[in-house]
Specification:
Length: 209
């Protein structure tokens, strides 16, 4: 049975050629280390902190900018909720497919649950219908079963803002429909569209003809 991550779905929608390189031919192209460094450090620190580890030895290694970002995250109202899990792998079966991914953190306040996603860069253009949002909410809904409310929170650490997405039954139906549609489309694709023109800012540009 086919299984898809939000990244796979997004890649297919944006460029089938890239999807073909990355997920069919399994060509892996490492990004420059500096590209993700800041985000990776903050994510790792947040995970240790939430799991109750002693982070005092890690803090001096942060750059001044990372220290500021870390402080913003510590002060964030959603990051201060009750911890449920972090770096949390979840999956859910949707019709004939599995979708899943790893949540930055799941927090709660009584029976109200919050999926947190820390962003040191930009938040998605259309956050409510981003594949990550849809997949994580559907997965959390399956695992939690009984809850009062469930929300997805993009924590925009650059601008110190939260983008809050509510989840309710109509949206659940809509998300399942969207996810089924794209999963079906991928699994029925026998020939990928390789006609796109090479672009500048893609890590696969050197394979692109
Ligand atoms: S360079 Fe552009 S066309 Fe080629 S794989 Fe990347 S995104 Fe697609």
């Amino acid at each position: 049975m086919n299984s898809f991550s939000p990244n796979m779905l997004k890649t297919f929608e944006n460029c089938q050629k890239k999807y073909y390189f990355k997920y069919v031919q399994n060509i892996s192209v490492p990004q420059p280390v500096s590209f993700f460094e800041k985000g990776k450090n903050i994510h790792a620190l947040a995970n240790y902190y939430l799991k109750g580890a002693d982070i005092s030895k890690l803090l001096p290694a942060l750059s001044p900018e990372e220290k500021q970002i870390w402080q913003k995250l510590l002060e964030n109202e959603f990051f201060q909720k009750t911890y449920v899990n972090s770096e949390y792998n979840l999956s859910a079966k949707i019709n004939d497919f599995w979708v899943g991914g790893r949540l930055d953190a799941l927090m709660k306040d009584g029976d109200d649950y919050f999926i947190l996603d820390y962003k040191t860069g930009a938040i998605p253009k259309n956050p409510e219908y981003d594949y990550q949002t849809m997949v994580y909410l559907i997965c959390a809904d399956r695992v939690l079963k009984n809850y009062n409310s469930l929300k997805f929170i993009y924590i925009d650490l650059k601008n110190n803002k939260n983008y809050v997405i509510d989840f309710y039954s109509e949206k659940k139906v809509q998300y399942v429909e969207y996810l089924t549609k794209i999963c079906n489309k991928i699994s029925q694709t026998l020939e990928f569209d390789l006609s796109s023109e090479k672009c500048k800012f893609c890590e696969y540009a050197k394979f692109c003809y």
